[in-house]
Design a protein that fits this description.
The complex is a heterodimer.
Chain A (H helix, E strand, L loop, with lengths): L2 E4 L5 E4 L24 E4 L5 E3 H8 L4 E2 L8 E2 L4 E3 L5 H17 L20 H19 L4 H14 L69 H4 L2 H5 L4 H13 L6 H5 L9 H4 L8
Antiparallel strand pairs in A: 1-2, 3-4, 3-7, 5-6
Chain B lengths: L1 E4 L2 E4 L7 H16 L2 E5 L6 H15 L6 E5 L2 H22 L6 E5 L2 H4 L11 H12 L1 H8 L8 H6 L11 E2 L2 H11 L3 H8 L5 E5 L1 H4 L1 H7 L8 E4 L5 H9 L1 E4 H38 L1 H6 L14 H4 L10 H19 L5 E3 L1 H12 L3 H5 L1 H11 L9 H15 L4 E6 L12 E6 L2 H11 L2 E6 L7 H5 L4 E6 L9 E8 L16 H17 L4 E5 L2 H14 L1 H6 L3 E4 L4 H16 L4 E6 L3 H5 L9 E5 L9 H14 L3 H18 L9 E6 L3 H4 L5 H4 L9 E2 H15 L6 H4 L5 H5 L6 H17 L57 H10 L11
Parallel strand pairs in B: 3-13, 3-14, 4-7, 4-8, 5-6, 5-7, 8-13, 15-20, 15-21, 16-18, 16-19, 17-18, 19-20
Antiparallel strand pairs in B: 1-2, 9-12, 10-11, 11-12
Helix pairs in contact in B: 1-2, 2-3, 12-21, 13-16, 13-19, 13-20, 23-24, 23-32
The chains are: A mainly alpha, B alpha/beta.
Bound molecules: iron/sulfur cluster (SF4) and zinc ion (2 copies).
Amino acid sequence: MATNVLTQNGTFRMDASLASASDVCPVCKSTAQTSPNLRFKVSSKCYHRICEGCVDRKFSAGKAQCPISGCHHMLWKRDWRLQTFEDIQVEREVDIRRRVWRTLDLTNLGLVEPEGGWENVFEDLRGYNDYLEMMEEMAMNLITNIDVPATNKKLRDYETANGLRKDKDDPKALLKAPVRQPGDYPDLSGLIRGLKMKKVAPKQAAYDVWEGVTKQREYFSLSAKHESSWDHYTNKKATMAGGWNVADYTEESLLRAFSGLGVFIENEKGGKMDMRLPLATIAPHADDVF
Amino acid sequence: MRFYIDELEVLFPYPRIYPEQYAYMCDLKRTLDTGGHCVLEMPSGTGKTVSLLSLIVAYQMHMPEKRKLIYCSRTMSEIEKALAELKALMRYRTKELGYTEEFRGLGLTSRKNLCLHPSVKREKSGAVVDARCRSLTAGFVKEKKERGEDVDVCIYHDNLDLLDPSNLVPTGVFTLDNLLQYGENHKQCPYFSARRMMPWCNVIIYSYHYLLDPKIAERVSKELSKDCIVVFDEAHNIDNVCIESLSIDITEDSLRKATRGAGNLERKIEEMKQNDEQKLQDEYQKLVQGLADAGTARDEEAFMANPVLPDDLLKEAIPGNIRRAEHFVAFLKRFIEYLKTRMKVLHVIQETPPSFLAHLKDYTFIEKKPLRFCAERLTSLVRTLELTNIEDYQPLQEVATFATLVATYESGFLLILEPYETEQAQVANPILHFTCLDAAIAIKPVFERFASVVITSGTISPLDMYPKILDFPAVVTESYSMSLSRKSFLPLIVTRGSDQQTMSSGFQVRQDPNVVRNYGNLLYEFAKITPDGLVVFFPSYLYMEMIISMWQAMGVLDRIWQYKLLLVETPDAQETSLALETYRTACENGKGAILLCVARGKVSEGIDFDHHFGRTVLCMGAPFQYTESRILKARLEFMREKYHIKEQDFLSFDAMRHAAQCLGRVLRGKDDYGIMVLADRRFQKKRNQLPKWISATITDGQTALSTDAAVGMAKKFLRDVAQPLSNQANERPAYNEKDLQAKDSWSSKDLELHQRIMKGRRAVGGGDEGRQVPNEQSYMPTAAAARDIAMSGTNSVNGSAKSNGAGARNEYEDEYDEEVDDDALLAVETMTDVQGAIGTTL
Ligand code: SF4
Ligand SMILES: [Zn+2]
Ligand SMILES: [Zn+2]
């Protein structure tokens, strides 16, 4: 029997693990009659099906051989899981598909699904359809046991070239990040054909916090020392403790004194921005206030 | 008679015309002139079909464009009737005009009715006839024959190719019988003759499905041009037809059969790979190029019909992962397996298409796009494999159609998975209902494609409901009352029994013995006074069975048996037709009979009880739908959200249209008479929702009656109508409006007078309805002595039809089934126990 279990996010988890009337565990011979709520688990390696109790008994101690006679698969307890589909063949088929699909998923190549769907990362619709057919072809080969080694090799080569191979010891880490050059074809293995080249973005200038304003002073220049009456503050501990600095103070005073110089309100009104006159035109009138 | 409406001369094949027929034609013409759609309600038995045909044929002949008329009706017999009317009309026109017009009118119905092949036509099921015919007429069969292979073909079909394709049948009107006769004489297939001649017809008469069911429409009606005039007659149920044409039910059994079908396909593909690999390769190449190219190979009789895909989709190529035949079959199998597993639920699930698709993708890696192309791809495959035993693939095709629909429409559909047939059932028998909630989806292409669509019926009130639920703009909506020279029917609303207790079939009181006894008494009293036939309608089978068994226990039935024979409709068609036959015999000779039937059953929809076959019709309870149905609930909710129609309004509308249908069963013409009893307290407030021709005759004195009062009025009515029908009023010459109103039919002279009065009124500035008067010449050519009465400006439009507009029709403020609570519903459930205790004939 299968049930659809409503999960928290509102979708249904399909579960075909509950024993039907005719189900018998091949290991302990339990049936739904002898033990109510009998559930079955499936091995994801050999797709044999035994009852939950047997899984617990045989695999709690660690890795063991599949209890079905003639099957030599070595399995962990985690290799046994609840059944999703009634038909074990479909269960297997979907597993294989999952593997092929995950591997050939275009996001692995750093692509993003465009507005109009994935077909738009290809040169044309034909290319996309060919890609779909190729995936189907590979999945079907694996499912029907045709050219299995060759197909697996293709997939492996693809993974290797694109840096998708998982590290055996640390499944989360990739074995080696691919060295992608700008202007490289998106699939480094060349398996998926017809993809659009990624546009190489024009080199952008470094970000400028000052938005073009230079530090260069137009109307005055700071000398190391200006003649003034505050000199005696300069080295006083009390003033310095407050952070007061005569050089900064001088600069700010000068900035304030000259700010707005060469800016004419009429020009600004006319909508013309940045109408400052060149330095030379004003300079003669500008006195050194200090 | 001949007369003018504006500039248009109408030839009407009868010497007299009913005022409502004339008004109907005027409005129809107005619709055709302005372009756009209309809703017209005209009482049954007042010659709606002939008015419609006379006007439209006149229009076709007058206008240079020669717009084609597509007349859709529901049943075979209605199609036959319309063809006969058309034939009579054309005969009259020929006689009047003195020459035969170049005109062709054909009817189309299923192969089952039109097949001539000696062995195929003997098949009982329509689907088998279709399938066998296809296997004899498919394109590749013919090719094989040409290559000299020994294959069976149909000679009737092959002969067609020897004829001029634009003249397979000569001009004129052919009834279905005529067509069969002609086909037999010339050894040509009537079905294909009619279908291929459609582009060369002036009038086509066929069933709704040829236009509404997308699976059929694409094949049959694709080539009809935009300016066709489309008429849906008897259209009061059109929304349900629309919905059914897009809804699919899937059961475990059909999935099993679909799997078998997929297995067969797989085997066939293997075989073909061994023997004729090239064919598969060719198909593959075509699909790689794009569907549009593959489509050109689509022959007239492609094997399976598909729900329409939007045009832009059709231009696209089949998705790569289902291009190869074997990939596609694996795809189908996976989809079926998924469905199978989903079916094993233990609780009810309701899901929208997007949620279904997301879940499907998670579990099976099936994407929306290939799913969408499923039906198209299957058709192509079946054609490539040259399969002939199509009927075996029916369930598979259903799954493919479902796939296409679910992936095409995001809204307006709902998936409902019900694991058990009834709440009490112990054994699961899951059904996946893929239901269309929006009637507008199926009919939308029709409204969009054709310039004028006419929706008409005897009971289509309230008129504004149809444009809402079908989502189209109507330029004219009109309801006509029935002009009668005598009171020929008596509607009565009975709300109380003789003991003054309220009568209702509402859930609360359904099982109340007093109410049941009161209903029994009502029936008994009317059985006593009604001559000949009496027809009773109950809201549902369940209710009918319950009430009958209670009557049995109370002895009510024994009392009724003294006066009449009792017969019962059942869901079984054969039993029902037997009951009907017995009923008719009993009405013909003897004291008459009572037929107990159900408001939504076959009888209420299609059987006429004219004259003595039905002198009284009794509605025992308002026929509300069972509101606990999940499908209905979903549809109500959808309509509330999308079209802002309140649940109660729709339920009330639906109940009243069915009640009106039931009432209309007994009055099929002006010379007929009958009593209409509405026995439920809830009818009292809803009488305005009945069609105008009924509601207008209900005076306050005829409402809120007790059984006794109703019986008294009925007795008096029967005494009055028993007087011989006099035609005096109609024969007296008319001089003014009042005289005209006293008549229920007009001669040419009466009509002229009416037109003159209307013209005059408009000149004064009065009742102008905003219609234009296209030409102002003053002539008045009518059939007989036309010219001597010629008066100035009398050829004008008539404007009377709108004397009372659809003003007071929007007030359905009342409740639909008050106080329905859980207890009441439980009561309904327990009622099932009563079932089965009762046989067919009592
Ligand atoms: S072609 Fe016509 S006559 Fe021949 S089998 Fe088909 S329907 Fe019948
Ligand atoms: Zn076990
Ligand atoms: Zn194993």
